Amino acid sequence: MVDGSFLSPSGLALMFLLGLRHGLDPDHIAMIDSLTMQAARDRPKLARWTGTLFALGHGAAVAAVAIGVAVLMPDVAWPAWTGAAVEWAVIALLLLVGVLNLRALARSGAYAPIGWRHKALRSPPGPAPRSPPPSSRPA
Question: Is the pTM of this model over 0.70?
């Protein structure tokens, strides 16, 4: 039985910090970026909320799975292959997202950078502009 000691302030702080670290994993950043770009194209007003909605939905899903496993754990003998099956399912999902993103990029006109990306990707060819010489004012 779970005793609830993980709900202490230090336990909650640790969960929060691990959650922040988990949220900065490259697969999460890529997924949020992909969803935001699609929302910017299809539903611009929703695009600014994409990261928040993803975080809330993902957090709720992870919490539901964690609670479900914690409740079932004492009563279920998990097969040895369960961990490997979950890892392969995650790998398959990430590959699917990657293939769908590459397919979208391969279509002509499917990707149009906006915001800072537009400036970074559409810079004029040629040498970088020189910085102005330091001023000749006396110090």
Answer: no
What is the three-state SS of the chain? Answer: CCCCHHHCHHHHHHHHHHHHHHHCCHHHHHHHHHHHHHHHHHCHHHHCCHHHHHHHHHHHHHHHHHHHHHHHCCCCCCCCCHHHHHHHHHHHHHHHHHHHHHHHHHCCCCCCCCCHHHHHHCCCCCCCCCCCCCCCCCC
Q: What is the pLDDT along the chain (139 residues), one digit of tens a residue?
A: 456 666 788 878 888 888 888 888 888 887 888 788 888 888 888 888 888 888 888 888 888 888 888 787 777 787 899 889 989 998 998 888 888 878 877 776 656 666 665 666 555 555 555 555 556 555 5
d(CA 47, CA 36): 5
Quickly tell me which residue has 């919490």 as its tokens. 63
**Neighbour-count burial of 37, counting CB atoms closer than 10 A to its CB (0-12 exposed, 13-18 middle, 19+ buried):** buried
For the chain, give every domain's residue range. 8-121
71-79: long-range contacts (C-beta < 8 A, 24 or more apart)?
A: 74/1
